[in-house]
User: Fold this.
Amino acid sequence: MRLPRSAHDEQGWRIAEIAPDFEVEDVWALPVHGGPDDFPQLLEVMAHLSSNKSPSRVSRALFAIRWKLGAWLGWDDEKLPIPGDSSSSLIGRLPQDLRDSTDGFDFDSLPFDPLYRTEREAAAEISNKTVHAMMHLGWVDKGHGDNQGQMAVLVKPRGRFGTVYMDLIKPFRHAIVYPALMRQIEQAWNSRDR
Assistant:
């Protein structure tokens, strides 16, 4: 389920101190629930997702088109500096206690580089010629021992081109890509080894 930005902001996530200049683009309640110590299982599920294995043929086609366009136009060839910054990664912004915290947090086939991980949140970044973006995963305490996964996407578009690109793909993200991703996450969560 799509959530308002306030659902992300009110959690007091560490990402706010690391990337205050990034815009929260999307926030989603993930279809996963568990106990207070189950966040590592969510990271494991997310680490093994693949756009090639989406339950939606349309979503798979959209990703295939995006990767093909990226290859043809060189969108994904190099990591560029963060817009408005000279560094190409947010690693330099991490406080000391978050540095070297990504052990066991990696993605098999998604093009994200892990940034940090705590007991209840993690972030990974991606850089290309359209945006510098982050996927933020959190484990939200819903009370009475129930916790739910939450995902936010934070972005800094690369100038006018990046802004137009994000506006152009928004309807596809909301109507096709994210619903298919939620089904894929739910299926992986329900079939995981406990």
Summary: The first helix runs from residue 5 to 9. The mean pLDDT is 91. Residues 57 and 180 are 9 Å apart (CA to CA).
